[in-house]
Amino acid sequence: MDLTKIKLPIGIVVLVIAQAFGIIYWVAGQDDAVGDLQGQVVAIEDAIEELSDKIENVVKIQAIIDNEMRTITSDHSMFGDALKDLGQSGALPSGERRSYGNYGGY
User: Fold this and answer.
1) Theoretical Cys-Cys bridge with 91: which of 3, 9, 64, 86, CB 3.0 to 4.6 Å?
2) First vs last Cα of the chain: how many Å apart?
3) How many other C-beta atoms can be found within 10 angstroms of the C-beta atom of residue 59?
4) String of b and e for 64-86 (b: at least 16 CB within 10 Å)?
5) pTM metric for this prediction
């Protein structure tokens, strides 16, 4: 095949070259977009890790609060029993009639 005999209009050659540059530009833009998205993913992963740590801390604090609430409720129940016994023995004023306990099953 003799390349000297091939005649292409200059417009077709310019069009093919322009399309090649367009594709290169588009691919470079996609590469930048992917790079930006990767940075966002890393930032989101860091935020998730930080929130996971905070949630773990809240769960620990809630367990401590539940334990303290049980202790306080138990103490109040014993105090209520002591007041009930005092009331039955007549040591409390006659108008003192209160009910203690029933703190939601704790």
Assistant:
1) 86
2) 95
3) 9
4) eeeeeeeeebeeeeeeeeeebee
5) 0.48
